[in-house]
Amino acid sequence: MRKLLTSLCTVILLAGCGTGTATMENEKSNEDEVVARENEVQESKAEVNEAELTEEQPVEDVPEVLEPQYRINENHWGVEPIENAPENVVLLTIDDAPDKHAIQMAETLKEKDALAIFFVNGHFIDTDEEKQVLKQIHDMGFPIGNHTMSHTKLTDLTEEQQKDEIVKLNDEIEAIIGERPRYFRAPFGINSDYSKQVVADENMLLMNWSYGYDWNKEYMNAEAIANIMVNTELLRNGSNLLMHDREWTAAALGQIIDGLREKGYEMLDPSLLKTPQIKE
């Protein structure tokens, strides 16, 4: 009887142990399955978050910054290569813009695949229509320069007035085209020590010219100005050509570009000029 009881207990104990092992294995299997599912969920969330981040924060194209290849030589105000850039270039500049013919001149330049700096006077951007003309010229790809608010001789003004002539125009141009001018040309080519400092503080390149003629009465017709701009003895590598927003110059501009190219010159892209570094 005692042996029978002992055998029964042994059977029950073994059955209990067997059941416990199966339960532990099942629990471990269930636990592994839960962990795997949680990992899948976390990976899925990570993929979704990455996709959302990519969609919400697209990578913007970084504009190409051109290395300067030319500098202004202040001894003669022409341009010269910094290293091995081609020497047979000339710089086209147009003052007193945008008066009445700036758009026509910009369109001619586009047709001829040539660039020029348009130097702006503040009294030519008083109206909304004039502001739109300036914006259109800039949108066509032409750089904008500062030629002061009122085209007054700077050495006749107080320092405060000189600063106002320069900085106020920079502010107005920036409001119209979204950026401040990088180039400055004083009225009549006459600067003061103070105006030069203001120009430097504004991170602009000081500029005058090599030659120009269209304000002289004898060249106030298309044929005469086209001829002298191409055939003057002052034309050479790096010449900085001064023209104005005038009817006769606008009419002659295409001939001037063609004539310069026939003589072996190319029109310089102003973005290749070395300009002052913007201060942080």
UniProtKB/TrEMBL annotation:
Residues 1-22 form the signal peptide. Residues 39-48 have a biased composition (Basic and acidic residues). CDD domains: CE4_NodB_like_6s_7s. Residues 88-268 form the NodB homology domain. One of its GO terms (molecular function) is hydrolase activity, acting on carbon-nitrogen (but not peptide) bonds. InterPro entries: Glyco_hydro/deAcase_b/a-brl, NODB_dom, Polysacc_deacetylase_ArnD. Gene3D superfamilies: Glycoside hydrolase/deacetylase (3.20.20.370). Keywords: Signal. Residues 49-60 have a biased composition (Acidic residues). It comes from the Bacteria. One of its GO terms (biological process) is carbohydrate metabolic process. Residues 39-60 are annotated as: Disordered. It holds the Pfam family Polysacc_deac_1. PANTHER family: GLYCOSYL TRANSFERASE-RELATED. This is Polysaccharide deacetylase. It comes from Bacillus solimangrovi. The lineage of its organism: Bacteria, Bacillati, Bacillota, Bacilli, Bacillales.
